[in-house]
Design brief:
The complex is a heterodimer of chains A (380) and B (738). Chain A is an all-alpha fold and 380 residues long. Chain A has 20 helices and one strand. Chain A folds into two domains: 91 residues, Orthogonal Bundle (Fumarate Reductase Iron-sulfur Protein, Chain B, domain 2), CATH 1.10.1060; 259 residues, no CATH class. In chain B, 28% of the residues lie in helices and 22% in strands. In chain B, the strands form eleven sheets. In chain B, strands 9-6-5-13-26 form a five-stranded parallel beta sheet, with helices on one face. At the A-B interface, β1 and α3 of A face α10, β18 and β21 of B. β1 of chain A pairs parallel with β21 of chain B, so a sheet runs across the interface.
Chain lengths: 380, 738
């Protein structure tokens, strides 16, 4: 017997779920959802948990990560209880639960924390650039001289390393929560290896998103994700050609890759910003402040990146250096706040959730087969 | 009255093309020597009607047989003053459901005509019953919302009204309400009920006489002339009224029986009624210490929809509790509200109220409440099943628990009486009997008991769809929650509806006419008392308690209580009860007019007694839909299957008719019988017929009763075909040709 906690719903309001009390549990949302499976019924059950304040059950739930927010449920909900937005809020809430630093909760529940964090990181980055930048050559644009690779690259690795460690710890916490819920089963080590492909596959393809009714969103999301991946590779692995004083030919593969990443990210973020302003689609109707933070920072990052490129090839030295500094000052809060603590953490949580789900299912299947075999043997 | 007959055969609507009209007319002029026999291609047209009118005026025709369409249509066209009109249904039941120009179809048409002629020969024009000293006053019993509304509606319609209330002030249950749910957009606000204004209007209206702190001591008489004795403050007043509106409402179920929900055990468990009182008088507080409440739980269906308490839904507890949840929220917006329900029934615009309460943050639980326990500081913890989460749940300590108890109609409270008939030897017969509860409301001086009959939950019986308001006592109309649990707007509409019924009754009684469902009917049963054996069957079986008895058990009919169904006529073993235009001999001669072919002709004959209310229209509809029906059937409409007298069965079988099919309405708790018990009584009488059949050395399979409703037109041909098949197995009636 569980105790009802009427205060949980109020707590979740800060994460965006403002209408959960209006749901009367008809189950239309679960009936129309193309992603629902027998073993993972949502959103109805999750809403009920929220209404009853069954915080413990919610913390151990995997379901929020299995929803891709197509908005079907929202359109059919007879009570305008916004089940899709509730699932979104639960993802925000779970992100804050997984995060061991506590920063995630602060960012999600306090706008002041959010804005101050961005400003601090923005100015700190500018400060670091001010202190560490190389010689400013004004006769000619020399970006690599201004931002020497021997400083930028290790700084980037260090930065990435710290964020990765935080995120990995969070993933481990997620793993503990999900694996200790429901039916208990021991997962053999070999299975982790065997099912590893699930993780990779879903990380790179977001295949499950494609099962939603509106496939164009999957394509757009993939476009954004691939643009980001390309940019990531350019910045980290190919910085020798990317962050350079040289002027590359238009058909240089690095330039082409750069264009692809820029166009992809700029197109999708611009479209999302317009969509959220228009609020025409269910998925764009409700915007948490962290959604705006993500979109705006990403857009500014990509846009300043583009400007750096334009100024460099127009051979305007000072504008190039300044916009480059700005570019970094947007990139740092974007990555630092979004990747381990808020919205962008889903890049890890979603594929890992599917990986964990698969692990558990396979292990349970094997266990059932084994008990069945034993039973057959015994009866024989 | 010297009769001059006229037969008019219409040849329109396929009749002329399908039948040999000359042969048909020859039946009338030859066999029955009818002086005026005519056909017309469009009898219901102006020219056709003129033809008949000319014969009435010129030839002195005063008994007419119209062989055309069903009696259910054009009754207004073929309506001639002081002229007997009988209808022969050649269209729907002959040519539309049988092959054209066929020997069997022609035989059917001729038999139908014979029956029509014989009937016209036998019937006489009804003379309406004229009672003396009729009153047009409406008596309203009960001064709650329904009673007040009824009194005002009656007075506004121009009828004097007497209102009797047992309490010292008017208003009833509704007067105790702090607020009511708003019935204007946005439908989510609470409003005041304008009851005080209505009470003022009632008390100030010169048309309305109000008796407060009063009770009905006795009601004698019948519609148009009820004599009512009202006891008030030790003295008795008399009023003569024409019709009665029963609006005594319901009371809350006794929460004392709900000890499993902690009532009476824990101080902070109260009923909805108690909460309403608290809210109206200074706010909702904990009874244990008078502190304002921080959390309240409502348990809906407390003792309702529960086999060991009230098995039914009381319709308003859900919305009343939602309203009370808003009282709590208005008093303290931070107070936590929990609502436990079985099914939340908030129909219509109440849905918006439900949504508002949800928006305000109340938590709803669907499932069974396991129990309530008390913790420190007189707080309560509820354990329940939450079906929606599939979990057992318990609450944090709660300040106050409110039980939403259901309604018990005032007619359900009292000793149960069952009125039964006795046969000659004094042994009780098993005819279906009414249950009457001595609830001390109307105190009727009726043979069949002092109150109106109730259905299984003790609500005053009034058919829930077909005849709302109409109780089983003519002239007494139930309104409000005494007949069915209902909310405030429904009660107000109900009161207006019941008053309208009462006024109709008063006016029709003055004309000597029956009330619904035979509003046009001026006939009434007449008793040939010399042959009465005082068997009491008529006085007991009348579904409307129309017949009283004197001390020697002689029936004392009250024609204005009568609905003209003829159940008494069917019940009477001596056959002494008849109507001017409907009697045992009239139907008997009709069935005797059927020509029964010899056995070797292999043309069996089946007689159908079809109830005029559902079966007969269904047969008409089968014809309209051109559904083929066995050519062997001969149909006689009856007012109600309850008017079927067993002698008809004996007569038909001894004449050589092979089988008899009785088509009547559905009976039982959800009856569709327009006269409530008619088809049930017919069924009961049939159970006794095997004796008669054995005496005649006949198989009991030759008589079959089937319950149909008006929508069953598509299955009726199959029902008949099935019976024909069974009769083929049984073989021809051995009495043929005797």
């Amino acid at each position: 017997m569980v105790t009802v906690n009427p205060h949980f719903a109020k707590k979740l309001q800060k994460f965006g779920a403002k209408t959960s009390s209006e749901c009367f549990n008809c189950g239309t949302c679960s009936a129309v959802c193309p992603l629902v499976e027998e073993q993972a019924l949502f959103p109805r059950k999750m809403i009920r948990y929220v209404q009853l304040g069954l915080e413990d059950k919610i913390k151990h739930s995997i379901e929020p990560w299995l929803c891709y927010y197509c908005g079907e449920c929202q359109q059919y909900c007879p009570r305008q209880a916004n089940p899709g937005e509730l699932m979104m809020s639960l993802r925000r809430y779970l992100t804050s639960v997984y995060d061991w630093t506590g920063l995630s909760r602060k960012l999600y529940t306090s706008k002041a924390w959010e804005i101050i964090s961005i400003l601090v990181l923005f100015f700190a980055t500018l400060g670091v650039i001010y202190l560490l930048h190389g010689p400013i050559v004004t006769e000619h644009t020399e970006l690599e001289t201004f931002a020497p690779r021997h400083i930028v690259d290790p700084a980037g690795w260090l930065f990435g390393g710290v964020l990765s460690i935080i995120l990995l710890i969070n993933i481990y916490r997620m793993y503990r929560l999900i694996m200790t819920s429901g039916e208990q089963v021991t997962i053999p080590l070999s299975l982790y290896v065997k099912e590893f492909f699930t993780l990779v596959w879903h990380f790179f393809t977001q295949r499950r998103f494609g099962d939603c009714k509106n496939r164009s969103r999957w394509l757009k999301h993939w476009l954004l994700m691939s643009g980001y991946a390309v940019a990531f590779i350019l910045v980290n692995a190919l910085s020798k050609w990317f962050l350079t004083n040289e002027f590359l030919s238009v058909f240089h593969p690095v330039r082409l890759l750069g264009y692809y990443a820029t166009i992809a990210m700029l197109y999708v973020t611009t479209e999302a910003i317009i969509g959220r302003l228009r609020k025409a689609e269910p998925i764009h109707q409700y915007s948490h402040s962290t959604d705006w933070m993500f979109l705006i920072l990403l857009w500014l990052t990509v846009f300043t990146g583009l400007l750096v490129h334009v100024f460099k090839y127009l051979d305007l030295p000072l504008p190039t250096y300044y916009t480059f500094a700005l570019h970094l000052a947007f990139t740092v809060p974007l990555l630092a706040l979004e990747v381990p603590f808020t919205k962008w953490a889903h890049l890890a949580y979603r594929p890992f959730a599917l990986y964990f789900k698969r692990l558990k299912e396979s292990a349970l299947e094997a266990q059932r087969a084994k008990t069945q075999a034993t039973q057959v043997k015994m009866s024989a | 009255m010297e009769k001059k007959m006229g037969i008019y055969v219409c040849t329109g609507c396929d009749i002329g093309e399908s039948l040999d009209i000359d042969a048909l007319l020859k039946v009338a002029s030859g066999e029955y020597k009818v002086p005026v026999c005519k056909s017309h291609p469009f009898l219901c047209g102006a020219e056709g009607v003129e033809l008949i009118k000319n014969d009435i005026a010129g030839e002195g025709v005063n008994a007419i047989v119209i062989a055309a369409c069903s009696q259910r249509v054009n009754y207004d066209v073929f309506n001639f003053e002081n002229v007997i009109v009988e209808r022969v249904n050649l269209r729907e039941q002959v040519v539309w459901c049988h092959p054209a120009n066929d020997e069997d179809t022609q035989m059917l048409a001729e038999d139908s005509l014979r029956m029509g002629i014989v009937k016209a020969q036998q019937v006489s024009l009804p003379e309406p019953f004229q009672a003396e000293n009729l009153s047009k006053t409406v008596l309203v019993v009960g001064g709650g919302l329904a009673g007040i509304t009824a009194a005002l509606e009656a007075a506004r319609a121009g009828y004097k009204t007497v209102l009797v209330e047992k309490e010292a002030s008017l208003g009833g249950w509704a007067a105790g309400l702090k607020k009511v749910v708003g019935l204007r957009p946005p439908y989510t606000e609470l409003e005041d009920l304008d009851l005080a204004e209505k009470i003022k209007e009632v008390e100030g209206n010169p048309q309305i006489t109000v008796y407060k702190s009063a009770q009905i001591e006795k009601i004698a008489g019948a519609p148009g002339m009820f004599d009512v004795q009202i006891r008030q403050n030790g003295s008795t007043a008399s009023e003569r009224v024409g019709a009665i509106v029963l609006a005594t409402g319901a009371v809350a179920y006794d929460a004392g029986r709900l000890d499993s929900l902690g009532f009476g055990k824990y101080t902070n468990v109260v009923t909805g009624e108690m909460l309403e009182k608290m809210a109206a008088n200074g706010g909702i507080k904990r009874p244990s210490d008078g502190k304002p409440v921080e959390s309240v739980a409502f348990i809906l269906c407390a003792g309702s929809r529960d086999k060991s308490h009230l098995p039914y839904c009381s319709a308003i507890c859900c919305t009343e509790s939602l309203k009370q949840a808003l009282y709590v929220k208005e008093q303290n917006p931070k107070a936590q509200v929990y609502i436990f329900y079985k099914d939340l029934r908030a129909p219509g615009t109440y849905e918006l109220l439900y949504q508002r309460v949800q928006k305000e943050g109340a938590i709803f639980f669907r499932g069974e409440v396991y129990g309530i326990g008390e913790v420190a500081d007189n707080q309560l913890v509820i354990a329940a099943e939450d079906v929606l989460a599939g979990e057992g749940i318990k609450t944090e300590p709660i300040d106050l628990v409110v039980l939403a108890t259901g309604m018990v109609p005032t007619t359900a409270i009292g000793e149960k009486l069952v009125i039964k008939a006795e046969d000659e030897k004094g042994a009780q017969e098993e005819a279906p009997a009414d249950e009457i509860i001595r609830s001390n409301i109307l105190n009727l001086e009726y043979r069949q008991g002092p109150e109106v009959p109730t259905l299984k939950y003790g609500f005053a019986d009034s058919h829930f769809i077909c005849f709302p308001y109409e109780t089983r006592r003519t002239g007494i109309y139930a309104a409000g929650s005494v007949r069915s649990p209902m909310d405030i707007p429904t009660t107000i509409k109900d009161a207006a509806g019941a008053v309208l019924k009462a006024i109709q009754c008063i006016e029709l009684t003055a004309q000597g006419s029956a009330v619904h469902p035979r509003v046009w009917d001026l006939s009434f049963p007449e008793f040939f008392m010399q042959r009465c054996t005082q068997c009491k069957r008529c006085t007991v079986e009348c579904p409307f308690g129309a017949i009283n008895e004197d001390e020697k058990f002689n029936p004392l009919p009250n024609p204005t209580r009568c609905r003209r169904c003829g159940v008494c006529m069917g019940a009477c073993p001596e056959r002494i009860i008849s109507f001017k235009n409907y009697s045992v001999p009239i139907i008997g001669s009709m069935l005797k007019a059927i020509e029964v072919p010899e056995e070797d002709e292999e043309k069996p004959r089946i007689l159908i007694f079809a109830c005029e209310n559902d079966a007969y229209p269904a047969l008409d509809m089968a014809g309209i839909n051109r559904l083929p029906i066995s050519p062997w059937v001969r149909i006689i409409p009856v007012r109600c299957l309850g008017s079927m007298n067993l002698v008809w069965i004996a007569d038909a079988l001894s004449k050589g008719i092979d089988g008899i099919l009785l088509l009547g309405c559905k009976h039982g708790d959800d009856y569709q019988c327009h006269f409530i018990k008619g088809s049930e009584l017919a069924n009961y009488r049939l159970s006794k017929i095997s004796e008669t059949l054995n005496r005649l050395a006949l198989e009991s399979d030759r008589v079959r009763m089937v319950q149909v409703d008006i929508m069953d037109y598509d299955v009726i041909p199959g029902i008949i075909e099935d019976f024909v098949k069974r009769l083929e197995e049984v073989g021809p009636n051995p009495y043929k040709g005797f």
